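Researcher: Last one for today. Full complex below.
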Amino acid sequence: MCDTCGCQTTKHSHQDRKLLEINKSLLEANDSVARKNRKHFGEIGARAINLISSPGAGKTTLLEKTAELLSGEFDFAVIEGDIETERDAQRIRAKGIPAVQITTGGACHLDASLVHKGLHELQHTVPESGLDLVFIENVGNLVCPAAFDLGEHKRVVMVSVPEGSDKPAKYPRAFMGSDLLIISKMDLLPYFDFSLEEASREARRLNPDIKIMALSSVTGQGMEQWRDYLAGLTKI
Amino acid sequence: MCDTCGCQTTKHSHQDRKLLEINKSLLEANDSVARKNRKHFGEIGARAINLISSPGAGKTTLLEKTAELLSGEFDFAVIEGDIETERDAQRIRAKGIPAVQITTGGACHLDASLVHKGLHELQHTVPESGLDLVFIENVGNLVCPAAFDLGEHKRVVMVSVPEGSDKPAKYPRAFMGSDLLIISKMDLLPYFDFSLEEASREARRLNPDIKIMALSSVTGQGMEQWRDYLAGLTKI
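Model: Here's the assembly. Have a good evening.
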């Protein structure tokens, strides 16, 4: 009962408890499939990277540029997650990179089962020599994807300059669980009130071990550092 | 059982069914509180606007500019939704506008109960003459907020130029349920491969009745149109 107006508030404590129990059990099931995915990625010789950001931060563009950057050096493939449309996979395939599209049918994040399905689709197109890297491009969302292990080896969170440097403080979980923060669209720095120092400080406050890289797919800033990071992963 | 590798897939059909039932019942409970919110907004003479976008599309900045635009003409207040931090409410209060901050404690969207709580907090600061408008700034997320009626009279979805004109097609539900699409950060059009025509066409394909407005908080583009839209609402 609401003190001020007498409205019935919707506590539903019994339902809430049931929901929490089911969610816990679904997350445990997810983590179990994620562990299997990690093993599968290992079997094809690949390290997997789960790429998380808001819509439009530049995930697909970064992967297009990565195709040019790693061309002939490493074999990689992409599992594309979207709510709807095949567009991102088409953009990646246009660069000569194997890509499978997973649509979540409304869900706001990928889960390990969807990635498992994507992995098996991908295996039809993998070269005999195997793969060095598999990128998993998550649904554009800085909140929900942070809760789901997909079986990746590294989690990378991207924030673009136009989004603002307050994003780590406002969406902490995505930063707490990531290995690398990419600040993208650095070429736009002159047009925005974005503080690289604030974004880095807040991200490190949440996660002292997080690596930070400032990139621009337009000017090429930081792309060598990104290449070296990826090369380092393939050697682990 | 997965045909290719023998992995156990996580179907959990019994759990899925239970989860669907609980979700349906929670959404129904939400809608019932939303109807009460709408009544409450009416009682203080206000029309409520639910503002939805990705993180960093410029929701708070638009509200800051709206404070300058409507100063002395209309009384309005803001219910700020965030996962963490009081920052947005502080920015709004600095413009002399009453604002309450609702933090969702991890949840990826506002729901009607949270807004109901915000509404009652707000009532302590409302002038005796009542309010003309209440803006509800949702959590930065283009997916989950689309499913929850908060008791608003109008739903406004924002997409900023840096995010790209493919966003309506990729995140359809937010556009299907909105009355107005604001394309924000129009001053950045020269620096991006953004097609206003594509974004508008895709939004209208999903929702033939959606109004579309192109704004820039920096140059002031479209702000008179936005003012007229808000003035029109207060007269309904």
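Confidence is low (pLDDT under 50) at residues 1-12 of chain A. Chain A has one domain: 30-235.
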